[in-house]
Specification:
Blueprint lengths: L3 H19 L5 H16 L9 H18 L7 E3 L2 E3 L4 H8 L4 E7 L5 E14 L2 E12 L6 E4 L2 E5 H18 L4 H8 L6 H30 L1 H10 L3 H26 L2 H9 L3 H6 L1 H9 L8 H27 L4 H7 L7
Helix pairs in contact: 1-3, 5-7, 6-10, 7-9, 7-10, 9-13, 9-14, 12-13
Length: about 350
């Protein structure tokens, strides 16, 4: 058995180093929301627990001081079984850790931020040649904790992060009381009777959709090639990066996620997808929401949606290829051009 305290501490220190270097890249609202998430996770507080503003304020101050001390430090190697691995050598590290029901990941997220975590393996499976890890409790993590990630031919689904994300969406709806898809979702999952139970069921239902999306991401990556990732590095931190990522997300979902959801004809899963369609992704794909509104209530055949998704496969591939063409021929000019085309190429 590896020295688990040392292992967790080393990975968490790398998380602190990454956070110290990248936390300032977030807007204030996003930063404070992520800090609330991290505070809940560290203190093992229930999602519904009311937070003490004094306690979280003191904790935030101490955390920022720690980040300042560590920001310029190099990442430490990961100690497992008397050997120390490069922190980004996920495959080799997991070959050792999986026998102990542990899962590790070291990779990169938005803005090129290094992301690390380690957690308990809940489920391990293969789909379409891809290795899938579903992770339960986590023992070290960053400020940013995406619910799903793909790396090489591996897909990581993080249950804690997914459950927290769903809770925040419900919490946001409770503040605004807007008429949106969460109204229907809360009724379907009977959240008014038992919110914790509803969250558990929503989390389990969403896991398959996340797996489908990551499979779609891998397929989109195979189509678009290595230049796409190089382009994202060039665009890191700009509006154009979010635009390009939204385009690829739609391509991945039209290739795999949405066809799978529509084939199963489960209204709750489709509503979860639509409820999580926000920001740039929502602005670029208004016809998807319009098609759902036009479907006959209770029929669940989703004919209009299937037609839109089929159109989307060609549309988003064409858009993605045009972005790549601009990157390859005008690498210094593509940022303003991409930003100006948002309204023109929506579907």
């Amino acid at each position: 058995m590896p020295d688990l305290p040392t292992l967790y501490t080393t990975i968490q220190r790398n998380c602190h180093i990454s956070d110290g270097n990248f936390a300032q890249d977030y807007g204030l609202c996003t930063y404070l929301l992520k800090m609330r998430q991290l505070y809940r996770w560290e203190k093992k507080l229930p999602l519904t627990a009311k937070l003490s503003q004094l306690d979280i304020g003191n904790w935030l101050e101490r955390r920022e001081q720690l980040w300042e001390q560590l920001a310029d430090k190099p990442f430490a190697c990961i100690p497992v079984d008397n050997k120390c691995y490069d922190p980004f050598d996920t495959i080799a590290i997991n070959q050792v850790l999986l026998q102990h029901r542990l899962v590790y990941s070291g990779g990169y997220g938005h803005f090129g931020k290094p992301l690390f975590f380690i957690g308990q393996l809940h489920q391990h499976e293969w789909r379409e040649g891809l290795e899938i890890f579903i992770v339960a409790e986590e023992y070290a993590r960053d400020l940013t904790a995406p619910p799903a990630m793909s790396q090489n031919k591996m897909i990581f689904i993080r249950q804690e992060a997914l459950r927290q994300t769903l809770w925040e969406n419900i919490e946001a709806w409770n503040w605004k009381k807007a008429e949106n898809y969460f109204v229907q979702l809360l009724e379907i999952y009977q959240a008014h009777q038992n919110l914790e139970s509803a969250l558990d069921k929503m989390t389990q239902d969403e896991i398959d959709s996340l797996i489908y999306h990551e499979i779609g991401e891998v397929k989109a990556g195979q189509i678009l090639g290595e230049d796409w990732e190089k382009m994202l590095i060039t665009l890191a931190g700009t509006k154009a990066e979010w635009f390009a990522r939204a385009v690829r997300d739609h391509l991945a979902d039209c290739l795999v996620t949405l066809p799978q959801i529509l084939e199963k004809a489960q209204t709750s899963t489709l509503l979860l997808y639509l409820a999580n369609l926000k920001g740039m992704r929502k602005a670029l794909f208004p016809s998807l929401l319009a098609a759902y509104q036009q479907e006959l209530p209770g029929k669940n055949n989703f004919i209009l949606l299937q037609q839109i998704v089929k159109r989307g496969q060609n549309h988003w591939l064409t858009v993605a290829q045009s972005l790549l063409d601009w990157y390859q021929t005008h690498p210094q000019e593509n940022t303003p051009l991409i930003s100006e085309q948002i309204e023109q190429i929506s579907l």
